[in-house]
Every structure is written in structure tokens, then in C-alpha cells.
Amino acid sequence: MDIKEIEVVKMYTFKTSNENIVFSAVYCDCCKHKWTATKYVNKDGKWIETDFYKRFDTLDELKEFVENYKEAENRYYFSEDNRESHPEIMDKSFTENQLKEVYRDIIDKTEYHDFHEWFSDMLKSGLILHKEERKTTKLTNELMDTIATYMDDEKKRTGAF
User: Fold this and answer.
1) H-helix or E-strand spanning residue 96
2) How far apart are CA 56 and CA 27, in angstroms?
3) Which DSSP symbol is given to 135?
4) Alpha-carbon span 114 to 104, nearest angstrom
5) Less CB within 10 Å around the terminal CB: N or C of the chain?
6) Per-residue pLDDT reduced to its tens digit, 107-134
7) DSSP strand E in 34-85: where?
8) For the whole model, what pTM was predicted?
9) What is the CA radius of gyration of the chain?
10) Distance CA 97, CA 100 (A)
């Protein structure tokens, strides 16, 4: 008789305030973050696994995330560093699906072989920003311009060059 090691898996499903979105939670003792939540959406009566997942140290953290989860369509912008190379995409917001179209239509595939590689690199390098980040960057740039103008005016006023 063969004796097999049986791994006990802890798995839960949590509902969000949106009845068409749930998260499965799976425990893994070998992972640094023990709990992984995977998002599922209900499309025409069928639950479909998405590519969204998030890891947590405790089940309580995961539960809190699900309780506070609000479905929002992420919006992205291209940073000002892209203005010269891609002026046609500036001052517009994009969903992730729209960014896939940008990748398909104008990105050099010899440098980035797939969308996820390109998208991840653009986020890390700051060339693509979330909507909230863009507001902060724009404010920071405006503040820096104001400070530079003030400094120039002070130099002129005091004669210090």
C-alpha cells in the first residue's frame, strides 16, 4: 500500500459589494505571503477567473481588502517624457484594454515581445502613470515652474546672477 502525502488546502470565496465580483482565497504555507486572492467576474451567468490577484500575510488582511474593494476602471496616462516620441497619445487617458491597442499599433515588438512585459516596464519606469499619479506629477511640475520663476525674479531683483 502506497502512502501519499496529502496537502491540506485552505480555500475560501468572498463576495464583494458588487454581486458580479468575487475573490477566491487560497492558503499556501510555502509562500512568503500566505494568502492569495484571485478575482472572478460573472459574465452571462458564468464565473470567469481574471488575471487580477493580490497576496496577503493574513486572512484578516484579505477579508478587509475584499470588504473595501470597489471596482473602478483604472485609467492611465503617458508621462510628459513621451511627448516627443508619441505626441498622439499625450493628454489622453487609457484603460488597460486601450493600452493593449497602443502596444499593438505603435510599440516596437523587437524590444518588448508582449504587452505585459511592456506595460510592466512602462509602469516601473514612470512612463505610464495611474490617473492619481498624473495629478501629483502635474502639480509638482507646476510647483517647480513657479519656484523657478520666483528664483529668476529674485535673481533679477537682487542683481545676483
Assistant:
1) helix 96-106
2) 10
3) H
4) 9
5) N
6) 889 989 999 999 989 988 888 887 654 4
7) 35-43, 46-56, 76-78
8) 0.42
9) 23
10) 5
